[in-house]
TrEMBL record:
The keyword Isomerase applies. This is Aspartate/glutamate racemase family protein. Keywords: Isomerase. Pfam families: Asp_Glu_race (PF01177). It comes from the Bacteria. InterPro entries: Asp/Glu/hydantoin_racemase, Asp/Glu_race, Asp/Glu_racemase_AS_1. It comes from Streptomyces oryzae.
Length: 270
């Protein structure tokens, strides 16, 4: 079995690691666009062109499913990707986990925050999500200035500063934080610690990696098998070119997992 993932950068690592843990025997294709990132400031037509380019590069490796592990691409390019690739290749988009966060808040009466890029916070897209799935929950949008770029760089100081700045914009009584950018899952522990305050565990975090992994396996006609032999290969594509995992990926546990598991089967990026 082979699963492909696409993103502008290393935000796909969280979902890729979820697939690797669920199916250690699955081959993975990671297709990103370092030549064109960041995608956030681009318009819909430009994002769609770039997303189609790296999706085609991934599709050439004949995966059983393609995860669009990028909120920006899912908002702007998902219809075009599905129109071109489905039904031959199932395409799984990524949506911030507002619905499960609101459901949990309804049981506890707690508040929810959505950490997202400044372009997404307050956008019609995010407002629609809240209106459709918020179920009347008190939801605060938190613009995370520079956090995705800091995570992409792997620079510890930049990450710390960006997380701290977003934490200062987050109401102190928030019980659940929706991670509205796939990059943010890579620093989930830092986000929780920054928001912990006097609480022993800090707020609950709602990401999307586990959900898109489960959906990709379903669409590929497979089931989780964490005990499978770790024989899965790793192929890395940068703007369509064969490459290796970027050094910044190895800052994160998810990147190290993929590099180690991939190296056991074949050399990374070869």
């Amino acid at each position: 079995m082979k699963i492909a993932l696409m993103d502008s950068g290393i935000g796909l690592l969280a979902a890729a690691a979820a697939v690797r843990r669920a199916r250690p025997d699955a081959d993975l294709v990671l297709s990103s666009d370092p030549d064109g990132m960041p995608w956030g400031p681009r318009d819909t037509d430009d994002i769609t062109r770039r997303a189609l380019r790296i999706a085609r590069a991934a599709a050439a490796h004949r995966p059983e499913a393609l995860i669009v592990a990028c909120n920006t691409a899912s908002v702007h390019a998902l219809p075009a990707l599905r129109a071109e690739l489905e039904p031959g290749l199932p395409v799984i988009g990524t949506v911030p986990a507002v619905k499960p966060a609101a459901a949990a808040a309804a049981r506890t009466g707690g508040r929810v925050a959505i950490w997202a890029t400044p372009a997404t916070t307050g956008s019609p897209y995010q407002r629609r999500l809240i209106e459709e799935f918020g179920n009347g929950t008190d939801i605060t949008g938190v613009p995370c200035h520079g956090l995705a770029d800091a995570i992409e760089s792997g620079d510890e100081n930049l990450i710390t500063a960006a997380v701290r700045a977003a934490a200062e914009l987050t109401p102190p009584d928030v019980e659940t934080v929706v991670l509205g950018c796939t990059h943010y899952e890579l620093v989930g522990n830092r986000i929780r610690e920054a928001l912990r305050g006097d609480r022993p565990a800090g707020p609950a975090l709602q990401g999307s990696a586990a959900a898109v992994c489960a959906q990709a396996l379903r669409r590929a006609g497979a089931r989780p098998d964490p005990g499978a032999a770790p024989t899965g290969n790793l192929t890395v594509l940068h703007s369509g070119r064969m490459a290796a995992l970027p050094e910044a990926a190895l800052v994160y546990a998810e990147g190290r997992l993929l590099a180690t598991a991939g190296a056991e089967a074949t050399a990374v990026g070869r």
